[in-house]
Specification:
It is a single chain. By secondary structure, the protein is of the alpha+beta class. The chain contains one helix and six strands, in the order E-E-E-E-E-E-H. Strands 1-2-3-6-5-4 form a six-stranded antiparallel barrel.
Length: about 120
């Protein structure tokens, strides 16, 4: 899916955190990497064995550095694309966050923004 022409309400930030994930009727996802996050959405790379489709909810337990338990987020999938040439993932998906505690949303966005700032500092050297 080409998202380059999307007019997004919120800026997406790279996140790059692993998560446990379950879709719909408790179909487990073998591997999940939450790729980007915004105030109201997320995208992820997935290793799935069963078909997932737009409209399903995906429950994420995002492994957050130096924190236990994981941060719980529910995303309603808006798009799903199958990936052909990737050794670790076979699908990419994204959607709208329908559940997250506000303090967890703040932690995720702060973490992502700090990653962007750190990358910019490294790039400016």
């Amino acid at each position: 899916m080409d998202n380059s022409t999307d007019q997004r309400q919120y800026i997406r930030y790279p996140l790059g955190l692993e998560a446990t994930a379950v879709v719909g009727n408790n179909a487990p996802i073998e591997r999940c990497l939450v790729h980007t996050i915004s105030h109201s959405g997320a995208s992820m790379n997935l290793l799935v064995r069963e078909e997932i489709v737009a409209g399903q909810n995906i429950m994420l337990g995002i492994a957050f550095p130096e924190r236990k338990p994981p941060l719980n987020v529910i995303v309603k999938l808006k798009w799903v694309d199958m990936i052909q040439d990737d050794d670790q993932f076979n699908a990419a998906a994204g959607g709208v966050i329908v559940f997250v505690k506000e303090e967890d949303r703040k932690m995720l966005l702060d973490y992502a923004f700090k990653q962007v700032l750190a990358a910019e500092k490294t790039h400016d050297r």
